[in-house]
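RECORD TYPE: protein structure
NAME: Cytochrome P450
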Amino acid sequence: MSRIENTAKLSAITKELTDESEHMNKGLFFSRYPNWKRIRAIHSPSFSTGKLKAMKPMIEKTMDQLIAKLDPKASDQQIVDFRHYYDSLTFDVITRAAAGELDYFNPLIQTASI
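PREDICTED:
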């Protein structure tokens, strides 16, 4: 299957999954060109090399916490449902990037965090 056929197929699936009036279409992934370009320009400075490098220590700290949670399970050779840990890791990284350090006494953070 050619790239053009793949693109046409993806476009058809996208149209089936979303309605033009849905909020989903207002995001970067499903937006059409003029709106996509505007959204991309707004988000672009947030993902510059310098900004991503500045986030590295925060991501490393979060990864260290994940490793600390998984080490005992690995030493006991436990089977782990990694989806839960991956979701928690993603939540922690996005929350810390958006809001800084987390308040671990917040019940929402305690429930969703690694």
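COMMENT: The mean pLDDT is 78.
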